[in-house]
Design brief:
single chain; alpha/beta; Undecaprenyl pyrophosphate synthetase; 8 helices; about 15% strand; globular; binds 3-methylbut-3-enyl trihydrogen diphosphate; binds magnesium ion
Length: about 250
């Protein structure tokens, strides 16, 4: 189930079951306003709040957002510190509201990189919201797509499997989001057209959408434009257009 693209052609619903977003452009948003970069990150949290609500309203079952990459530690120390503070405040202040709204909260990434306090807040938030089913919000923090593949390989190797028996499905089952459908739609704001070590394995057949909108400006209309673009695409999964049309 976790790797539908390895099997038959997956269903292609009008509303993406899973949207994955690289929330980029906070710094530039702030710079244009002669504000410190952290002001852009604060605005970015507000934009995320709106997108979570909009996804729930539109019936999107899974939303995964890239909040902090394993490479973002390379930023100036003061920006990293402020981002960690913002992450902590968001965990303290937003989780109750997510829970009230039936949203399950999860974090993927190498959590050992975070302070004890942040790790505890994450554990509590995941435990509190674990039975919610309206929307699964996954935050990728200290996450890297390559890290994810490597940690999956480590788990496989620890199980003393015969290398000849290793299959794509088995590796996929060890990835951070093994229990979720692969993203149908990937969105990157901020104008760059790259993956930046976000989900690598899982994006194999995802529809990619890039917009120049900076993340703090990404509103409901922008989300709807991305979904409309997704709907207009023909997902062929290797087949011909004629085959796809005959099957639908
Ligand atoms: C994305 O915005 C947020 C994080 C990476 C934490 P940026 O901070 O990368 O914003 P730009 O790309 O510098 O505008
Ligand atoms: C990707 O954005 C990571 C997040 C949005 C968290 P970056 O701004 O770090 O990506 P690069 O460095 O421009 O590729
Ligand atoms: Mg950036």
């Amino acid at each position: 189930m976790s790797t539908p693209t390895l099997k038959a052609t997956p269903a292609n619903p009008d509303v993406p079951r899973h949207i994955a977003i690289i929330m980029d452009g906070n710094g530039r948003w702030a710079k244009r306003r002669l504000m410190p970069r952290v002001a852009g990150h604060r605005k970015g949290v507000e934009a995320l709040r709106g997108v979570i609500r909009a996804c729930a309203e539109r019936g999107v079952a899974n939303l995964t957002v890239f909040a902090f990459s394993s490479e973002n530690w390379r930023r100036p120390q003061d920006e990293v510190t402020l981002l960690m503070e913002l992450f902590m405040r968001a965990l303290e202040n937003e989780v109750a509201k997510l829970h009230e709204n039936g949203i399950r909260f999860r974090v993927i990434g190498d959590l050992s990189g975070f302070s004890e306090r942040i790790q505890a807040l994450i554990r509590d938030a995941e435990a509190l919201t674990r039975d919610n089913t309206r929307l699964v919000l996954t935050v990728a923090a200290n996450y890297g797509g390559r890290w994810d593949v490597v940690q999956a390989v480590k788990k496989l190797m620890a199980s003393n499997l015969d290398p000849a028996d290793v299959s794509e499905e088995m590796l996929a089952q060890q990835l951070s989001m093994a229990d979720m459908p692969e993203p149908d739609l990937f969105i990157r704001t901020g104008g760059e057209q790259r993956i930046s070590n976000f989900l690598l394995w899982q994006l194999a057949y995802t529809e990619l959408y890039f917009t120049d909108a900076l993340w703090p400006d990404f509103d409901n209309a922008a989300l709807d434009a991305a979904i409309a673009s997704y709907r207009a695409r023909e997902r062929r999964f290797g087949r011909t257009s004629e085959q796809v049309r005959a099957a639908s």
